[in-house]
């Protein structure tokens, strides 16, 4: 029996009254601390046209984080492939692998991670933007890392021979099925699509075919986690994330409000129900409460790895949450069978 690896997903959140440089410095401080705490990997997510998220350029941010750390795996959670030409992604992540061998993950997502107008501004044409294009775009990307693949007379340099660990990300069944059929590791976005988690993981395992990358399926589940000394403190710290997500869904994204501002917000009953529903299946509370919640998730999903994302206003509270989980929660998590 082995312990389930714990990893980190970060969005470089920009707090109200702060700026992008500070947000990126906080993500750097977080990466250094979670490496010390023994977390397995840290990924950053690609989002665009969102004032409260500074991780719009994963490859650039990962280069900085890799230079500031030494052992933790780093990757994208994910690069949203419809936004980019596959050759560009191959060259960027091939460069990262050349600089930092055996430490780089390339998590690939099918959604643009933004609105359609911004997606078009990124890609500059509609080519490659539809869901139907994704399998072909993914095959083209992977081909650039392999000899004898890719487009004739086009070589990714760096890229060919400098392959990262490729993952598929998903929040529905599409990428679950594709990851299984290709024999790739799969990461499911339970933190914003909890209702689809069980079905997606079942489909991934059912569709899995052994490959040169994996002999058996490997599923990671991304889950929101806010751990504090008490349940009440964790509830208070989580309020800004709930309000930020609500504003995003209402079409008015902004920087992350403070807990005091979020607590004073006049939520309607419908808005409160929206936030309550979003929290279902997440981990929120004291170390004892978070242990129970994560163990319940592990028993239900049989995840091979958990990736925790913690969106709170203050970086000290963010780091403290990961410290509490590493020190008081991780030793009490259920174990899994060794491969």
TrEMBL record:
GO cellular component: cytosol
Keyword Oxidoreductase carried by entry: yes
Domain (Luciferase-like) ranges: 8-302
Oxidoreductase among keywords: yes
The entry's keywords: Monooxygenase, Oxidoreductase
InterPro entries membership: Bact_Lucif_Oxidored, CmoO-like, Luciferase-like_dom, Luciferase-like_sf
Gene3D superfamilies: Luciferase-like domain
NCBIfam families per the UniProt record, alphabetical: oxido_grp_1
Record family assignment: To bacterial alkanal monooxygenase alpha and beta chains.
PANTHER family, per database record: LUCIFERASE-LIKE MONOOXYGENASE
Name of this chain's protein: FMN-linked alkanal monooxygenase
Taxonomic source organism: Virgisporangium ochraceum
């Amino acid at each position: 029996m082995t312990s389930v690896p714990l990893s980190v997903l970060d969005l470089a959140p920009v707090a109200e009254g702060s700026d992008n440089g500070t947000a990126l410095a906080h993500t750097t401080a977080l990466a250094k601390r979670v490496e010390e705490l023994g977390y397995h990997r840290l990924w950053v997510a690609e989002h665009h046209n969102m004032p409260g998220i500074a991780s719009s350029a994963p490859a650039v941010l990962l280069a900085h984080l890799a230079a500031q750390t030494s052992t933790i795996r780093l990757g994208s959670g994910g690069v949203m492939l419809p936004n980019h030409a596959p050759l560009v992604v191959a060259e960027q992540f091939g460069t990262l692998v050349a600089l930092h061998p055996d430490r780089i993950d390339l998590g690939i997502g099918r959604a643009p991670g933004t609105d359609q107008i911004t997606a078009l501004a990124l890609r500059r044409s509609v080519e490659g933007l539809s869901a139907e294009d994704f399998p072909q775009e993914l095959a083209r990307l992977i081909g650039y890392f392999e000899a004898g693949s890719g487009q004739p007379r086009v070589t990714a340099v760096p890229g060919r021979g400098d392959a990262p660990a490729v993952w598929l990300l998903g929040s529905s069944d599409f990428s679950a099925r594709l990851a299984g059929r290709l024999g790739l590791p799969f990461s499911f976005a339970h933190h914003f699509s909890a209702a689809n988690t069980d079905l997606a993981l079942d489909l991934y395992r059912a569709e899995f075919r052994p490959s040169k990358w994996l002999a058996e399926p490997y599923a990671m589940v991304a889950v929101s986690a806010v751990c504090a000394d008490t349940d009440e403190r964790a509830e208070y710290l989580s309020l800004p994330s709930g309000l930020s997500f609500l504003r995003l869904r209402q079409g008015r994204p902004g920087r992350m409000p403070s807990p005091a501002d979020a607590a004073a917000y006049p939520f309607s009953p419908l808005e409160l129900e929206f936030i309550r529903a979003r929290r279902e299946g997440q981990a929120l509370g004291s170390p004892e409460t978070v242990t129970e919640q994560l163990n319940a998730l592990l028993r239900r999903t049989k995840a091979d790895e958990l990736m925790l994302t913690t969106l709170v206003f203050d970086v000290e509270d963010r780091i403290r949450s990961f410290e509490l989980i590493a020190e008081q929660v991780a030793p009490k998590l259920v174990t899994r069978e060794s491969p």
